Amino acid sequence: QFFAEPANNVVDADHSQKISMIKSAAVVACLPAAGRSSGQDPTNGALQAGVKAYFQASGATAPAWVDNYLTGKIAYSAAHTAVQLHAGKNSPTAYDVAEDLTVTVWHDYNLTIPLANKLFGQTYDKASDTWWTRVQASCTLNNEGVNDVIQEDTFVKP
């Protein structure tokens, strides 16, 4: 499914493991604001199991929302979140070590409050009878990629 990518490069955004990891992080970040969907859980139950294990490890019972809502929310977030890694300063697909990388995230925010959904909704989905509006945010972090250049050490004799 993924192409082999050299360090500090994104060969094909549609088949990039790096872009997939960025999108996974965005999907989890958008999870609290996500609506619910009956779509496929991209974690195949691993998120739900992990949250339950967290509560059990702390001596508590997992709340009902873990079973009732979490799978639908992660499915919605995965289906309604998109990411874009902006081009590097010297190439659209190659990035320098420690170069600033900017990622933009889009999320289709599900508007569930009557009247507000019609005032602020950008898109209406007739099949699910829901309104949503697209929100976006960008973030810039430095590239923690691999430095491919091995510098020769020089030693000074005492």
SSE order, one letter for each helix or strand:
HHHHEEHEE
Q: What percent of the residues sit in helical stretches (DSSP H or I)?
A: 25-40%
Biggest sheet statistics: 4 strands, antiparallel
In round numbers, the mean pLDDT is 88
Tally of contiguous helical segments: 5
The radius of gyration computed from the alpha-carbon positions, rounded to a whole number of angstroms, is 21 Å
- Spans where pLDDT lies below 50 across 5 or more residues: none
Number of strand segments:
4
Characterise the protein shown here.
With 158 residues, the chain is α+β, with helices and mostly antiparallel strands. The chain is 29% helix and 21% strand. The protein is built from five helices and four strands, in the order ααααββαββ. The protein has a four-stranded antiparallel β-sheet with strand order 1-2-4-3. A hairpin with a 4-residue loop joins β3 and β4. It is extended, with a radius of gyration of 21 Å. The termini are far apart.
Short description:
With 158 residues, the protein is an alpha+beta fold. It is built from five helices and four strands.
Layout of strands and helices, then pairs:
Blueprint: H1 17-30, H2 46-57, H3 64-68, H4 70-79, E1 81-85, E2 100-111, H5 116-120, E3 123-125, E4 130-142
Antiparallel strand pairs: 1-2, 2-4, 3-4
Keyphrases for this structure?
single chain, 158 residues, alpha+beta, four-stranded antiparallel β-sheet, 29% helix, 21% strand
